[in-house]
Amino acid sequence: MDEPKHKDKHYYRGFLLAQFAALETTIDVYIASYFIDSDKKYDFMNIILNRLTFEAKRTALKTILDRKTPDFVKSKNNTWPNSAFIEELRLLNNERNIFAHYVDTIKHDESAIISLMEFRDKSKIVEYDWPKYESIVKRILSALKKLQDDDFVKSN
């Protein structure tokens, strides 16, 4: 992914949020397709899934993926096959929440492309330079691809 020439911080916020929205919609389709194999799955998405938080969708997805590995036996020495993926979705949602809810602020680091501030209990500034920003977008696109990948869907 090449660094865009556009330097507007609002562009970066919007682009990342749009990528995350695509990921969340793909999770919706995955969950709906698990339960419904007809045109009604879009009704299910619009009426039910659009009213759920991302965390509720993430835990529903985890349950679906766990159920698709019936031979797996959880022990203290192993983890569920998709635990790392489900954790990655949680971490990506944390980043999404920063971009969606923190306030724009003045950059403190010259290399930052966007600087955001939280005002909970005390102020906290989070800055993103191009490599950090690009890494998050690539992680979102990777999760999206994994959900869309035929092998992932067939094995899960």
Description:
With 156 residues, this protein is of the alpha+beta class. It has one domain. 60% of the residues lie in helices and 12% in strands. A three-stranded antiparallel β-sheet has the order 1-2-3. A hairpin with a 7-residue loop joins strand 1 and strand 2 (112-120). Helix 4 packs across helix 5. The longest helix has 27 residues, at 9-35. The two termini are 29 Å apart. The model has no long low-confidence stretch (mean pLDDT 86). This is DUF4145 domain-containing protein.
Q: Segments where pLDDT lies below 50 for 5+ residues? A: none
- Bin the helical content: 55-70%
Number of strands: 3
The main β sheet shows up as: 3 strands, antiparallel
Taken from the alpha-carbon principal axes, the silhouette is globular
Mean pLDDT metric: 86
- Give the ordered list of helices and strands: HHHHEEEHH
Oligomer: single chain
Alpha plus pi helix count: 6
